[in-house]
């Protein structure tokens, strides 16, 4: 796919949230379908290239036009069954997530924002130190790998709990912006970001871009 939507500007997190929530909300069903499919294909190639044993992923709010990670999860369950999938649950009233192993049998319940989460009593709690790769939700990201989410700070609290070798891979329907103006000391940069157009890579803090065909 080719992008005609490059954003060469610098904005605050608050403005980026508004702008990219809007851009996401106006994507038509067919466009969402195509972008989701291409991102899932790229993500599966990316995953295969690292042979992780354990992947953490958000569970999507598809009606809010989040990236449909169920396409990725379903394919892993079908063709890479040895990979353990872990999904988060927000501990109500806190800025913290807990994390559960999910299988096709896992009972999911919606939290107060409508986000599907593993039911905590019947699901198996996971060991965060086992996670090899994290598929990270975002609204916008910049060319240095910093991201903007819904503003809860959940992922910036979660990343330092993970082992340092865990690969943080963002998923985005859109290209990066030039700069997020108001980063703070808690912001943790991504290692990779997969868009429908290319896979960005910042491992070892060298901002580089892989060509479109590479995982
Ligand atoms: N699918 C999914 N799961 C995820 C995340 C995500 O981005 N996507 N999160 C990523 O961190 C965490 C949830 N983060 C959230 C942070 C703030 C608000 C929030 O403040 N919501 C507003 C309403 C937002 C709206 O619907 O426009 C509110 O409660 O007023 C919601 C979720 C954990 N699980
Ligand atoms: N590890 C942390 N310890 C304390 N405060 C934190 C930490 N991480 C983030 N915060 C604070 O949480 C608030 C929200 O952070 P930010 O705006 O970066 O959220 P976000 O990355 O958009 O949200 P999310 O990670 O949930 O998608 C900010 O005030 C930030 O300083």
TrEMBL record:
Residues at which substrate binds: 59, 66
Positions contributing to ATP binding: 13-17, 147-155
Gene3D superfamilies linked to this entry: NagB/RpiA/CoA transferase-like (3.40.50.10420)
BP GO terms, sorted: folic acid-containing compound biosynthetic process; tetrahydrofolate interconversion
InterPro entries: FTHF_cligase, FTHF_cligase-like_sf, NagB/RpiA_transferase-like
Recorded catalytic activity of this chain's protein: (6S)-5-formyl-5,6,7,8-tetrahydrofolate + ATP = (6R)-5,10-methenyltetrahydrofolate + ADP + phosphate
Keywords: ATP-binding, Ligase, Magnesium, Metal-binding, Nucleotide-binding
EC number: 6.3.3.2
Pfam family, one: 5-FTHF_cyc-lig
GO molecular function: 5-formyltetrahydrofolate cyclo-ligase activity; ATP binding; metal ion binding
Co-factor requirement: Mg(2+)
Highest taxon in the source lineage: Bacteria
Family designation: Belongs to the 5-formyltetrahydrofolate cyclo-ligase family.
Protein's name in the database: 5-formyltetrahydrofolate cyclo-ligase
Lineage: Bacteria, Pseudomonadati, Bacteroidota, Cytophagia, Cytophagales
């Amino acid at each position: 796919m080719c992008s005609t939507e490059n954003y060469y500007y610098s904005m605050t997190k608050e403005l980026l949230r508004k702008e990219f929530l809007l851009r996401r909300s106006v994507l038509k069903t067919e466009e969402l379908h195509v972008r989701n499919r291409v991102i899932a294909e790229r993500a599966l190639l990316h995953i295969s290239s690292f042979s992780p044993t354990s992947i953490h992923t958000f569970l999507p709010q598809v009606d809010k036009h989040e990236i449909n990670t169920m396409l990725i999860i379903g394919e892993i369950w079908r063709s890479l069954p040895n990979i353990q999938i872990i999904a988060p649950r927000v501990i109500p009233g806190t800025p913290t997530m807990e994390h559960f192993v999910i299988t096709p049998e896992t009972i999911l319940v919606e939290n107060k924002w409508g986000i599907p989460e593993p039911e905590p009593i019947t699901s198996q709690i996971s060991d965060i130190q086992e996670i090899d790769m994290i598929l990270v939700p975002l609204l916008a990201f910049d060319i240095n790998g910093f991201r903007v989410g819904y503003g809860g700070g959940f992922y910036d609290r979660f990343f330092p709990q993970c082992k340092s070798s865990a690969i943080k891979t963002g998923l985005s329907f859109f290209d990066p912006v030039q700069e997020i103006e108001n980063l703070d000391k808690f912001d943790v940069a991504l290692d990779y970001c997969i868009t429908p157009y290319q896979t960005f890579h910042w491992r070892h803090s060298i901002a580089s871009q892989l060509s479109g065909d590479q995982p």
